[in-house]
Amino acid sequence: MSKPFYCLLFLVLFISCSKESKKPISTVIGCQIATIDHINNGAAILHESCLYDNQGRVSKININDNIGDSTYYIYEYQPGKISQTKKPNSRIFGNSFVFYLDSQNRITKSVESTAPGFSHNQTYTYDTNGYLSEVIEIDSNKDAKNIDSALFSYGTNGNLNQIVHRQAAIYPPGNSISLSHYSTSFTQTNDPVTYLIGYESTLESYEDISFHQVISKYLGKGPVNSIAAYTQTYNGNETINYSYTKDAKGNILSMTETGPGRTDTYNFTYNCQ
User: Which residues of 260-271 are buried (b: 16+ CB within 10 A; e: fewer)?
Assistant: First the structure.
């Protein structure tokens, strides 16, 4: 699911400890995602399985791809900080991260483990209503500093309307080059958001769904309704549509994204108490 601003929120199944942000892992309280299968244009490409600690927080995510590679993430929780450690360092996407939380259990900064001489940091700010308002991502190396920013705007109903993206590069001794400037607009369904595909879709965090669901719990007030479609003005307009199937309890059994030349389907199983 490669997109511009690919690493905007490379953050994705934590459950918040605070009362305000402790949102259900799915539409059915007491159900937790057990497995996720990603199918691209009819071909299975990823299988994920999720484990939880005795507080219901994700403790481990196992990932296997379609050519025999595998990796897993370990999650550790401390006051004001969540650590995600990737083991082993396989070619499957993703790195180790540390996420820093404020007193309201919202992510304010993330630091990614990178190769020596490189750094990858993100900062997060929120508006007076508690919604995420801006994410700034800075990639640095000895030759340049790449700065990606995203500004978020919301409707009166609390749904995300638009993200405005700006990307630039700064070269020593301070020369700045604008790389791109584009926007993404969203429409929503009438169904309540499930936090299965809430912020991780609308904030354009395109990676494995499980990882993104974790972080959505720590990004302030969430959206009200599930995403129906988005249109991005990068290299011409591109529209992606979403559809869902649910079981009798309201759990999402599958989510399908359709766009130019591709169809991505995510199938879910659950453990319910």
Answer: eeeebbbbbebe
Distances from the Cα of 78 to the Cα of 17, 89, 178, 179, angstroms: 11, 23, 39, 38
**238-246 and 119-126 strand pairing:** unpaired
DSSP state of 223: P
User: Alpha-carbon distance 85 to 10, whole Å?
Assistant: 13
**Joined tokens for residue 226:** 């599930």
State the amino acid at position 72 in one-letter form: Y
Strand partners, 120: 112, 139
Give the tokens for residue 211. 């990882």
Phi/psi at 213 (5° precision): -65, -35
Q: How many CB atoms lie within 10 A of CB 250?
A: 13
Q: Give the distance from CA 86 to its chain's centroid.
A: 16
Count the helices and strands in the chain (H runs, E runs): 2, 16
Domains of the chain: 31-272 (2.40.160.190)
Segment 130-157, tens digit of pLDDT? 998 998 888 877 666 778 888 889 888 8
Q: What is the pTM of this model?
A: 0.78
Question: pLDDT tens digit string along 80-108?
Answer: 999 988 876 555 556 778 899 999 999 99
Q: How many other β-carbons are positioned within 10 Å of the β-carbon of residue 170? A: 15
3-class DSSP state of 211: helix
Q: Given 3-state DSSP classes, what are the helix, strand and coil percentages for the chain, each rounded to the nearest 5?
A: 5, 55, 40
Beta bridge partners of 239: 231
Structure tokens at 13: 């199944």
Could you tell me how far CA 265 lies from the centroid of its own chain?
16
254 DSSP β-pair partners: 245, 267
